[in-house]
Amino acid sequence: MAVIDASLRRGFRAMMAAAAKGVRKGNARACNGGPIRRAGLALDSINYFHNIGNMEMKTALAGLAALSHESRLRAFRRLVEVGPDGVPVGELRDYLELPAATLTAHLNVLRGAGLVTDQRAGRTIRLRANYGRMNALIDYLTENCCAGSGSCRPAPSCKTDKKGAAK
């Protein structure tokens, strides 16, 4: 039995290595649902390379983790409050009464989660809430509200037409 297990492990490792080599060289179609073919082996990409729901969960967790600090939550709420025109970094720093380095660190976390975008205009950096990501997070949290019965209605999504504000 141990011989069979070792043989299966070696075969599986060889198959995965061949598939990974094919992906690196561009010989595979891992992302479009087609099988990966390399060295006479075929892997069903749906079974091995697509974890349904994991990406959505990871994105939601990143957004929630970014908002889990008081200063970041206050900053994000302020950006939502000012609307799609956004606010210069200096004004946000004055509003939050935070040192510049601390605000920068918090903004980097919000940027990493995709909740905040920025745009340089001359010497000024203008910050905006990413309404698309915010709405996606709200939709994710309320997706199965009331067990899908429709007896309650989640809050409407925030819509904006400004360039760079919703993506």
Walk me through what this model shows.
- There is one protein chain.
- The protein is mainly alpha-helical and 167 residues long.
- The protein contains seven helices and five strands, in the order αββαααβααββα.
- The chain folds into two domains: 48 residues; 94 residues, Orthogonal Bundle (Arc Repressor Mutant, subunit A).
- The protein has a three-stranded antiparallel beta sheet with strand order 3-5-4. The chain has a two-stranded antiparallel sheet with strand order 1-2.
- A hairpin with a 2-residue loop joins strand 4 and strand 5.
- The longest helix is centred in the N-terminal third of the chain and has 24 residues.
- 18% of the residues are buried.
- About 20% of the residues have low confidence.
Largest sheet: 3 strands, antiparallel
Alpha-beta content class:
mainly alpha
Number of strands: 5
Instruction: Provide the β-strand percentage band.
Output: 5-15%
Mean pLDDT reading: 74
CATH-defined fold name of the largest domain: Arc Repressor Mutant, subunit A
Report the C-alpha radius of gyration, rounded.
23 Å
Order of helices and strands: HEEHHHEHHEEH
Structure keywords:
single chain, 167 residues, mainly alpha, Arc Repressor Mutant, subunit A, 2 domains, 3-stranded antiparallel beta sheet, two-stranded antiparallel ribbon, 7 helices, 5 strands, 12% strand, globular
